[in-house]
Design goal:
- This protein is α+β, with helices and mostly antiparallel strands and about 210 residues long.
- It has a single domain, classed as Sandwich (Jelly Rolls).
- Helices cover about 15% and strands about 30% of the residues.
- It has a seven-stranded antiparallel beta sheet with strand order 1-2-11-8-13-6-3, with helices on one face. A four-stranded antiparallel beta sheet has the order 7-12-9-10, with no helix packed on it. A two-stranded antiparallel sheet has the order 4-5.
- It is globular and about 40 Å long.
- The chain binds succinic acid and fe (ii) ion.
- Succinic acid binds next to strand 12 and strand 13.
């Protein structure tokens, strides 16, 4: 992983440690954030957001869709990656070029992610502490991009129930969970609904990029 090499404009990109992860605060400027929202509008038009249920049948508070070769889906049959949208049956739309460029910028990897999961947090939505472990190779990092309302993100260790720390993630922040942090427990305690004007309806979008296969 290459870090802190500056962005395309040659500006040094600040980064801070968050648990074992690396946070690039405000890596995306407001114009880049707005452009990404437009890209995601096209993704959602092709692959509508759904409210998944857990394997136990509990509706999640987050709405989800995806782009890329594979999307992460959850239903009564369990969690898994699937090549098609569960509702439309169509393949997922391609990952937007700007998202792939960001992946290359923060990971230095030529290998592209297979999945760009798109999570939408409306008012009151949250995500419990979990590990991302449905992928085959944990040597690839997970990259997370925050857009819209700020959120309290919590990160702990690989073991469940250990100490955690938290920080606010703001629109334009990019987080890289790699190395020892690849299997860290993490989640979203709550969002500060209405704290950003990026999304007209309010709320937060989080993109997570993963190599699956
Ligand atoms: C996730 O872990 O899937 C999402 C994390 C976030 O929303 O920042
Ligand atoms: Fe996750």
């Amino acid at each position: 992983m290459s870090e802190g090499n500056g962005n395309a404009a040659g500006r040094a990109v600040p980064r801070v440690a968050l648990g074992g992860a690396v946070l690039y605060p405000g890596l995306l400027d407001p114009a880049a954030q707005a452009a990404l929202v437009e890209d995601l509008r096209a993704v959602a038009a092709a692959a509508p957001f759904v409210r998944p249920v857990t394997p136990r049948g509990q509706p999640m508070s987050v709405r989800m869709t995806a782009a890329g070769r594979l999307g992460w889906v959850s239903d009564r049959k369990g969690y898994r990656y699937a090549p098609r949208h569960p509702g439309t049956g169509a393949p997922w739309p391609p990952i937007p070029a700007a998202v792939l460029a960001l992946w290359r910028q923060v990971t230095g990897l030529r290998r592209e992610p297979d999945c760009c999961l798109v999570n939408y947090y409306g008012e009151g939505a949250r995500m419990g502490l979990h590990q991302d472990r449905d992928e085959a190779d944990f040597s690839f990092p997970v990259v997370s991009i925050s857009l819209g309302d700020s959120a309290r993100f919590r990160i702990g260790g690989v073991e469940r129930g250990g100490p955690t720390e938290s920080a606010m993630l703001h629109s334009g922040d990019v987080l890289v969970m790699g190395g020892a942090a690849r299997l860290a427990h993490h989640g979203i305690d709550r969002i500060a609904f209405g704290s950003s004007t990026l999304l007209p309806q309010g709320g937060r979008i989080n993109l997570t990029l993963r190599v699956v296969a």
